[in-house]
Amino acid sequence: MIYFDNAATTMRKPPEVAEAVLRGVTSFGGAGRGVHPASLVAGRAVFDARTKIARLLGAPSPSCVSFALNATMALNVALQGLAEPGSTLVTTAASHNSVLRPLFKLRDERGCTVRIAPINPDGGLDFVAYERLLAEGSVQYVAATHASNLTGDVYDVARMAELAHEHGALFILDAAQTAGAIPLSQQGLGADVVCFTGHKGLFGPQGTGGLCVLPSVDVPPLVEGGSGTYTFNERHPRFMPEALEAGTVNAHGLAGLAAGADFVEKLGVGAIHEKVKRLTLAFEKGVRAIPGVRILGGNGGIERCGVVAIDAEGVDSALLGDSLAREHDICTRAGAHCAPLMHRALGTEETGAVRFSFSCFNTEEEIEQGLCALRKSVESLRKQEVNRH
Fold this sequence. Notes:
The chain is an alpha/beta fold and 389 residues long. The protein has helices at residues 15-27, 37-57, 71-82, 97-110, 127-135, 157-166, 186-189, 251-267, 269-288, 317-328, 340-346, 364-388, and strands spanning 2-3, 65-68, 88-92, 113-117, 141-145, 153-154, 170-174, 193-197, 209-213, 293-295, 303-304, 307-312, 330-331, 333-335, 353-357. The chain has a seven-stranded mixed β-sheet with strand order 2-9-8-7-5-3-4, sandwiched between helices. Strands 10-12-15-14 form a four-stranded antiparallel β-sheet, with helices on one face. β7, α7 (186-189) and β8 form a beta-alpha-beta unit. α2 packs parallel to α8 and α10 packs across α12. The longest helix is centred in the last third of the chain and has 25 residues, at 364-388. It is globular, with a radius of gyration of 21 Å.
């Protein structure tokens, strides 16, 4: 099997990730829930994960990192925790539903105003429109994606954050596609909150992720409950990181996340990015040689991550994805990719797209095989369509 669906989840993990999870499952007690050895070893594992994530993502300190199930949960924690009734929030059409749906919920249930900066047909952000939306005033929060999960375009979020701050808004970054995949520093980018997931570029298990929150930002808890401390207080503690971690954390998964972060750090985020970029460009070059196949975006940002989405003229994206899987044992993702506004911007709202996404575990040989399979599948499906008519 050739796995080209890494933007959804990285299936191929470093072996030490599985080993760390297994050790945790067989030796951890409740982290922060006792002083016996089994509890203490779990607590140390969670702190280790916190420390490594803070270092890798450029957060000020480990206490700034709170864990959650994934980037979706982290974004909900940040947006629903911060936005008060009547707030105005800005996002872009590149946003994933993990940003859009919480924003629309805030609009519908709290009377918030949501302004959306458009994306150009090349996949790039319309910065003039973005600045205009901020200049209209009364913007409290900007929530934006670092990289499109559909086109791979990496946006100039440092500039976006600077403009947001100039207009008095906090900047919340969706780093689902970039954490561990491209160099990223919360402090360097100027992001007030960075939401990340563990199961993509950080090579952690599913069910891991979280948010890095600057000390100057107070995010009220979305969920309240057991914390292991201040038991007699009626409300959940408001100090980080416990404020955003009600209940027992996924220590087993976080041990795996720490191992994944270790792997990324040792290999080097820059080295990982360069290898994946080479594979991506090689695949893109091969796709351009296939008649009637269009690459969506990819040149609209300041950089790109390991994603190539295609639209094959006259071929249904779902059928193409199915053909690649059944006939060539190649895993891709077909459809709308939870990015409705991006598809509208690119003109693929009706057709969808087939997305190929790569990791450092992919090889040049796999790229060549993938291109060969893509060409065969496109040709076969077009012939079938002709025969039907």
